[in-house]
Amino acid sequence: MNNKITSCKTKKTTLAAALIISLSIVVLAGCSSGNNSNQATNSGTSTSSSQTAAGKSSTDTNGDGIPDSVEKTYGTNPYVADTDGDGVNDKEDKAPVGTENLIKEASAAQLPIKIKDARVEDNATADHLEITLTNSGNTTLNNFDIYYTITDKVDKTQESYYQTMNGLSLNAGETKTIHFDNQVKEAGHYNGNMNGLYGTSVNGLTFDIQLHAKGYQPLNFQVEKAKGTAEVAD
Ligand SMILES: [Ca+2]
Ligand SMILES: [Ca+2]
Ligand SMILES: [Ca+2]
């Protein structure tokens, strides 16, 4: 009997001890997870306060892993991951503002487009490449793309860009103006790199432009920018 009582007491003691231990573990775990969450909160707070302290330096508008401030240094466009449109994102592109001409056309038909106006300064808003074109043919034109090089008149530095003109369509006789100002949510607006030569060089620039619609030969024209940096919107 005594043995049984002893063994029962021992069991009770062991159970109590086990309970205390497991309670301590729970308390400790609670403490430690509390600490962790505090640390997480603290580190979160410190990250966001350092972001605030650094102003917009860590903002990455296009989410390509290159902060806007670094895009400015690289001369790439913070609004698009592939600045020159060659299919290689800036992060991997050894020449992020240089692409070969990606316009492919077998047809020899002349593109029935009249360029009514093309400018890279004296725009109504901040400076950007702006082209006003009229469809002088009898059928709707679409599937446009564009290739242009920008050449610095003094040091001969060159950049080249290609892009498809998504959504651009011109009925017979219709006139439209297209803008390369990164306001891409609006119809007729496309990306344009203001961190490259256009926004940074004080020298005169020549834009050699090829506008193409599928089934027609590309149309070539030039736009000149006088010396002095383009006016970039803040
Ligand atoms: Ca970026
Ligand atoms: Ca690229
Ligand atoms: Ca490239």
CATH homologous superfamily grouping of the domain at 95-225: Immunoglobulins
**What count of helical segments does DSSP give?**
3
Summing up helix and strand content along with how strands pair, one would put the structural category as alpha+beta
CATH hierarchy, class of the domain at 95-225 = Mainly Beta
Order of helices and strands: HHEEEEEEHEE
Bound molecules: calcium ion
Notes on the protein architecture:
There is one protein chain. With 234 residues, the protein is of the alpha+beta class. Helices cover 27% and strands 23% of the residues. It has a domain at 95-225: Immunoglobulins (Immunoglobulin-like, Sandwich). It has helices at 2-53, 68-74, 197-200; strands at residues 113-119, 129-135, 144-152, 158-164, 175-180, 189-190, 205-213, 219-225. The strands form two sheets. The protein has a four-stranded mixed sheet, with no helix packed on it. A four-stranded antiparallel sheet has the order 4-3-7-8, with no helix packed on it. The radius of gyration is 31 Å and the shape is globular. Mean pLDDT is 83; it is low at 1-55. The chain binds calcium ion (CA) (3 copies). Residues 60-62, 64, 66, 71, 78 line the site of one calcium ion.
Short description:
This protein has 234 residues and is an alpha+beta fold. 27% of the residues lie in helices and 23% in strands. The chain has three helices and eight strands.
Output the keywords:
single chain; 234 residues; alpha+beta; Immunoglobulin-like; 4-stranded mixed sheet; 3 helices; 27% helix; globular; binds calcium ion
Describe the protein's topology:
Elements: H1 2-53, H2 68-74, E1 113-119, E2 129-135, E3 144-152, E4 158-164, E5 175-180, E6 189-190, H3 197-200, E7 205-213, E8 219-225
Parallel strand pairs: 5-6
Antiparallel strand pairs: 1-2, 2-5, 3-4, 3-7, 7-8
Bound molecules: calcium ion (CA) (3 copies).
